[in-house]
Amino acid sequence: MQSIRSLTTTSALRGLVLAGALAAPGLAQAENVNLISADGTVDIVGEFVAFDENTYVIRTALGELRLSATRVRCEGAACPSLESGKAEADVILAGSDTLGQGVMPLLLEGFAGVLDADMAAVVDGTNLQAELVGDQGFGDALGSYLVSSSASDDAFTALLDKTASIGMAARRILPAEARALRDAGAGNMIDPQQEHIVAVDSIVVIVNPENGIEKLTMAQVGQIYSGQITNWSQVGGRDMPIKVVGRETDTGTAGIFYSAVMGQEQDSWQFVNGITIASDNNEAAALVNENPGAIGFVGYAFQRGAKPISLVNACGLTMSPDAFAARTEEYELQRRLYLYNREDVDPESKEFLDFVLSSDADALIRKAGFIDLGVASQEQPLDGDRARSLLDPNVDAYEGNVMREMLGTMIDYERLSTTFRFRTGSSRLDERGAIDMERLIKHLEKAPEGSKVMLVGFTDDVGAFDSNRELSETRAQQVLAELQTRAGDRLDGIELTYRGFGEVAPTACNAEDRGRAINRRVEVWMQAAR
């Protein structure tokens, strides 16, 4: 089996730290610089040679190394002035290729349309350079935009070095990264004015369209990637070797996937010999489509005709990678896609961010194949998975009565995708709550007068059953109060109520921290007036 460190560029560079520290004595100390990534995994000392095309060139005992300024920051007296050396554009976005390649081209087109501008775009490798000209191309230049697509880690390095004004990340900023930026004067990176959720995404496990497999357990997926399962016949498929397609671990997509199927500790990840490492989502999908025995994982927007499969969690719950499950964040391999900016963000970048975060961008996000934060609805039929779970005969009579009470209530309502979540033992909403609240109000404003909306609370299973039901009602009541406060008289024609059902109807495993966090929620049910 292979260690993931042998597969990644980041870990290869990590091995150069000692080499840099033992650089030849002849290197002039005054000319030495230190190149460091935001998370500290790259830390190289060498003699500064040049800064060319947004790339540092340094000399070490192993020879000259070239590292993109979007991946590392430079420390030392010989470091160049980034204000003069950085790529030329009015607005520079750097980071996750999931956002940079997947959705930014369409968002820039949409932004140009709002400005009544013409956009001329040039793609050079992983970089997209766009120029906007007003009056449909006949007016003045409105601005230039550079999108540099690589990995989520690079978003925070670029913000730290001011080589980008907007960072793109397929994961939330890490505490160490936030502290480094705060200490550098960038502000509070988790403040709502600096941290922005632009979409949600499912990481989809894909197989070749010819493969008859429809679902796998999370454990089986982990065993496939670690080499414990090597043939499709071992999981109910035909006799065919499994070809495993993976990604570099410094990408947001891979980090979430490997943590979910192989455990949180990266040092323990061991990979099957012969794993193929795809450079990005597009290549991963192409490799799976080309090989009948292949398996891979990609962001929701990058399936490219490959066959998505459902996953079964440790509690036996089947999870399908559909848009509604992603919006409710109840699909285990889902994530939020973020944009970040420094506190001292420039007006041009702020204007673009305001557009991306508006409802005007929702259709563009959907067109790109991603899942916007708009409100969707879904019926709750008696023959559905949720209704069947509430009829479980293997529960005591007291809990069964609550389950049947919920069943009798929910069949008259559709569920909206808006779902509010809480920290453990708290009635405080998470960072997405404020965004969803305003979108929900705008959605409900369009409902016919006389429609009914119920805020329905749930908890994890930590604590006593009755206490959890009381807590679920408290949380539902709190969300209702906040909804009424924010809406003012905008929802006067809607009947608003709340209920709480405690720990019944979990949507994830209560055995894990992440599952319990998913289960601590307030759902929104709606019965539209006829």
UniProtKB/TrEMBL annotation:
<dbReference type="GO" id="GO:0016020">
    <property type="term" value="C:membrane"/>
</dbReference>
<feature type="signal peptide">
    <location>
        <begin position="1"/>
        <end position="30"/>
    </location>
</feature>
<dbReference type="Pfam" id="PF12849">
    <property type="entry name" value="PBP_like_2"/>
</dbReference>
<dbReference type="InterPro" id="IPR050811">
    <property type="entry name" value="Phosphate_ABC_transporter"/>
</dbReference>
<protein>
    <submittedName>
        <fullName>Phosphate transport system substrate-binding protein</fullName>
    </submittedName>
</protein>
<keyword id="KW-0472">Membrane</keyword>
<dbReference type="InterPro" id="IPR024370">
    <property type="entry name" value="PBP_domain"/>
</dbReference>
<feature type="domain" description="OmpA-like">
    <location>
        <begin position="409"/>
        <end position="530"/>
    </location>
</feature>
<dbReference type="InterPro" id="IPR006665">
    <property type="entry name" value="OmpA-like"/>
</dbReference>
<dbReference type="Pfam" id="PF00691">
    <property type="entry name" value="OmpA"/>
</dbReference>
<dbReference type="InterPro" id="IPR036737">
    <property type="entry name" value="OmpA-like_sf"/>
</dbReference>
<keyword id="KW-0732">Signal</keyword>
